[in-house]
């Protein structure tokens, strides 16, 4: 063999493995999704997250893999589900809600993004909103003034109410925090506070039956997987008892509640997707400030109002972002 041909052969043998490695596709990241409620109840929020990820180039099944785990309102399931995501070696995890966030943080040092959490500073999930530190960042629902705003809307709709029942899952820390804020808003508004405590779905029917005649309206501490997973049942029971309902999230009004007022949650899930994108591209959760909601939705369900025999003032309807008829 001539020297020139021999050298070319040796060169090709050396370069071929390098070229083969260069042509190998980059590792597709795995995005874990830990939802505290059910996929059916979270469909709108999940879609907002997945759609925004796709817009940013992370398409499920092509440039990323999204794996889902659902707690379906049962706090005792959060730990095993978090362990499953850890075992799957997810590169980043999206969750929402204080309990799932805390469980996931205790289970893994993987980057974690929360689409919403009641008070991540008070619960120790982050050091501060501006500089979260650690492996966690996302969007906070901290807004104590929201309870007062909601009560003001309820009084505008029902000017003659005197007693407000507050349905709360006392096993869920974020709901207990909200309960304190609601109690302060109720008493500040000159109304009577009637607590209704539950710990499981089995408690709800008897708890609501027990407030008939004791309250004029029902405020539901709704940033809670138990309430989210049983919202249809709560609305059916409240309607049967002729009890107007007030919530903090739009899906509850869509499911038959009278009024909801709170952050535009799909927007928060879209923002969470943008934070996931930053981290997948190299940013550290510790350096990404925790955001707070900037847009809010007032939804009034006129179908429910009519079923309750209520007439909602036109001045209030005019301020609503959505009226369900």
What can you see in these coordinates?
- With 325 residues, this protein is α/β, with parallel strands linked by helices.
- It contains 13 helices and 12 strands.
- The protein has a 7-stranded mixed β-sheet, with helices on both faces.
- Helix 2 packs parallel to helix 11, helix 3 packs across helix 4 and helix 7 (201-209) runs parallel beside helix 9.
- The model is unreliable at 8-16 and 18-24 (pLDDT under 50).
List keywords for this structure.
about 325 residues, alpha/beta, seven-stranded mixed β-sheet, five-stranded parallel β-sheet, elongated
Which radius of gyration do the C-alpha atoms yield?
Answer: 24 Å
Major sheet strand order: 7-6-8-9-10-11-12
Low-pLDDT residue spans: 8-16, 18-24
**SS-based structural class?**
alpha/beta
Give a short account of the largest sheet. 7 strands, mixed
**Mean pLDDT reading:** 90
Number of strands: 12
Give a brief rundown of this model.
The strands form 2 sheets. This protein has a 7-stranded mixed beta sheet, sandwiched between helices. The protein has a 5-stranded parallel beta sheet with strand order 2-1-3-4-5. It has 325 residues and is α/β, with parallel strands linked by helices.
Layout of helices and strands:
Blueprint: H1 3-23, E1 30-35, H2 43-55, E2 65-70, H3 78-87, E3 92-95, H4 98-107, E4 112-117, E5 136-140, H5 145-157, E6 163-169, H6 173-188, E7 192-198, H7 201-209, E8 217-220, H8 225-229, H9 231-240, E9 245-247, H10 250-254, E10 259-263, H11 265-280, E11 296-301, H12 302-308, H13 314-317, E12 322-324
Parallel strand pairs: 1-2, 1-3, 3-4, 4-5, 6-7, 6-8, 8-9, 9-10, 11-12
Antiparallel strand pairs: 10-11
Helix pairs in contact: 2-11, 3-4, 5-6, 7-9
